[in-house]
Amino acid sequence: MSDPSSTAGSRPIDGYIDPNFPNPNGEWDTPIIIYGYTPAFSLSLFAVIWFFLFLIVHAAQVGIYRCWWFVTFPIGLVFEVVGYIARSLSAKKDPYHLLYFILNYFFIVTAPVFLAAGIYTILSALIPRLGRQYSFVPPKVILWFFIASDVVATITQVAGAALIGVAQSNREDPTTANNILLGGLAYQVFSMGLYVILTMSFLFRARSVITRRGLTVFSIVFAIATVLIYLRTCFRLAETAQGLGGHLYSNETYFACLEFAPVALAVLLYAIWFPGRCVGSKVRVTKEEQDMERTSVAF
Fold first, then answer.
1. Under the phi-then-psi rule, with left for phi > 0, alpha for psi from -120 to 50, and beta for the rest, what region is 66?
2. How does this protein lie in the membrane (predicted)?
3. Distance from C-alpha of 96 to C-alpha of 237, rounded to nearest angstrom
4. How far apart are CA 293 and CA 289, in angstroms?
5. Of 124, 140, 150, which is closest to residue 232 (Cα–Cα)?
């Protein structure tokens, strides 16, 4: 969409402009709405309330069951809350505001890194309890490799998103910035895909032990939550691959169903089947502790 008021020497505006929300043209306002639409305030508000409530639930259970290894999960929920607050400010106050967009993108994209770190730790805790022979990779390698991979991928994504905002603000071609973002997402999809394969192979190979230990339901929940977080990452890759203005990028329905919903459901599942209660309060356990845990039955 072009701006009729643009001067002859400036690059035409290529992007979404809300006809019902005039651009305030403030210091931090971009010529277009980078989201590709005006975010829905109702979705943002619901997300803030949802993640805040489960932040309290998860933080309380971390303390009750003293499973400090899962503390990254409520940290991720803090990021979700802040990200959706920034998104609600875009929706209600100014969808053209660059800082609102960057804060929204940074916190919503970074939050799953902390959530995924908790999920990686679950597998690292299950392996010594169910049998190291069922895993192709040692627990420590799983934990540190995949956390490091997520950190690198997320830094790249955030840098790409920030550069997209700057390019749009300066009316420059954002293709290079979008390619940086795409590279970070592609690597994250690749690395997390490896994790999904390792997780599913471990759960399949250890299925008889899982049944004896009473962890069948939790293992199903663990598998579902892992796939949900991975689905969200695949959506982000497909969205970015289409580029700015693509169908996935410019339709908030996809964001709601494939970004918000998978994460929200994973958070709900782990609130009900809390890992600290189902798996244990420690990641590493001695042989004596393993024998004691075999007598317990998970929910």
1. left
2. Multi-pass membrane protein
3. 24
4. 6
5. 150
pLDDT by residue for the chain (299 residues), tens digit each? Answer: 444 444 434 444 567 899 989 999 888 888 889 899 999 999 999 999 999 999 999 999 999 999 999 999 999 999 999 999 999 999 999 999 999 998 998 899 889 889 999 999 999 999 988 999 999 888 888 888 998 998 898 889 888 888 887 886 777 777 888 888 889 889 989 999 999 999 999 999 999 999 999 999 999 999 999 999 999 999 988 988 887 778 998 999 999 999 999 999 999 999 999 999 998 877 665 554 455 455 444 44
Sequence-separated (6 or more) residues with CB below 8 Å from residue 62: 68, 70, 71, 73, 74, 276
Residue type at 235?
F
Across the chain, the runs of DSSP E, i.e. the strands, are none
| Burial class of 3 by CB neighbour count within 10 A (0 to 12, 13 to 18, 19+) | middle
- C-alpha 241/C-alpha 13 separation (Å) is 21
| Gap between the Cα atoms of 88 and 242, Å rounded | 25
In whole angstroms, give the CA distance from residue 38 to residue 157: 22
Task: Find the distance separating the first CA and the last CA of the chain, reported in whole Å.
Answer: 55
Are residues 98 and 122 in contact, defined by beta-carbon separation less than 8 angstroms?
no
Please state the pTM of the whole predicted model.
Answer: 0.85
3-state DSSP assignment of residue 26: coil
CA distances to 9, 71, 163, 214, 235 from 173, rounded to whole Å, are: 15, 41, 10, 56, 24
Q: How far is CA 47 from CA 41, 107, 148, 265, 267, in A?
A: 10, 13, 28, 12, 12
